[in-house]
Write a structure and sequence with these properties.
This protein has 262 residues and is mainly α. It has 2 domains: 131 residues, no CATH class; 130 residues, no CATH class. It contains 10 helices and 2 strands; from the N terminus they run H-H-H-H-H-H-H-E-E-H-H-H. It has a two-stranded antiparallel sheet with strand order 1-2. Strand 1 and strand 2 form a beta hairpin. Helix 7 crosses helix 9. The termini are far apart.
Length: 262
């Protein structure tokens, strides 16, 4: 626990000032975190980031992460992000032939989906911060409250397993407790910030985000169980890798952007 607390403090001391500052530093941070997360995902599949498919995946990720204010770069070459994805698929499939199927069709599917999984989440991290610091803080506090509530309430009164085949320690009581704690945080945001929502709207939004945050956590747990790894990485002692810390937020950031800003 001591190691987890120290790691969290060190990471928070870097992460929080950057998101408060906003702008280019947030973009740089997103590129760094997403690149590490993609490396962790490819490593699960035993694919190297310093290989032809690894480099294609990384370049596609960097293109996908381009925020709206840099869209002019793509317009110069008359390519959309979707067209780059299609081009990457063609290159991946070509590589399966070049390697005589050592790099398989399944590897192609994994590489494309891994890139989109990470890219979509961190792209909306950038866009959510661009829309306003309040939305980013809201997402962070909702997930922290959900995780903490699920952990402590689950340990105290949890009896019924939530999804034992995926994550044996999670309970239904803990999951509901996480949603309850998230709702408390939402009420505090409603009372002490200028977030644009009524009590009913924010309650529904918070419930949806809390549930999907937990689904994001389970998705990464399923990945790790499938590939028989304990943690996605070791960059944060006591916490694991970047994916281990951001799995919930990769689901929440796109949703909070759609719900609040569309």
């Amino acid at each position: 626990m001591k190691q987890r607390i120290i790691s969290a403090i060190v990471f928070g001391a870097i992460f929080l000032p950057v998101i408060i500052l906003g702008g280019t530093p947030v973009v740089i941070l997103a590129y760094l975190l997403a690149s590490i997360a993609l490396y962790e995902l490819l490593k699960m599949r035993k694919l190297s980031i310093v290989s032809v498919p690894g480099i294609i995946s990384l370049l596609l990720l960097w293109i996908f992460l381009l925020p709206n204010q840099f869209q002019d770069v793509l317009e110069i070459i008359h390519f959309t992000k979707i067209e780059f994805v299609l081009l990457a698929v063609l290159l991946f499939l070509t590589y399966t032939v070049a390697t005589k199927n050592k790099f398989t069709f399944d590897d192609v599917a994994f590489s494309v989906l891994a890139t989109l999984y990470v890219g979509i989440g961190f792209y909306y991290f950038i866009e959510t911060r661009e829309a306003g610091l309040i939305y980013l803080f809201f997402s962070l506090f909702i997930i922290w409250a959900t995780d903490s509530g699920a952990y402590f309430i689950g340990r105290a009164i949890g009896k019924r397993k939530l999804w034992p085949e995926i994550s044996p320690n999670k309970t239904i009581e803990g999951s509901l407790g996480g949603v309850f704690c998230a709702l408390i945080v939402a009420i505090l945001f409603l009372l002490f910030t200028d977030i644009r929502a009524t009590f009913l709207q924010l309650s529904i939004i918070t419930g949806v985000l809390s549930v999907f945050g937990q689904i994001g956590d389970l998705v990464e747990s399923a990945l790790k169980r499938h590939y028989d790894v304990k943690d996605s990485g070791k960059i944060m002692p006591g916490h694991g890798g970047i994916l281990d810390r951001f799995d919930s937020l990769l689901f929440v950031w796109p949703l909070i952007h759609f719900i609040f800003l569309f």
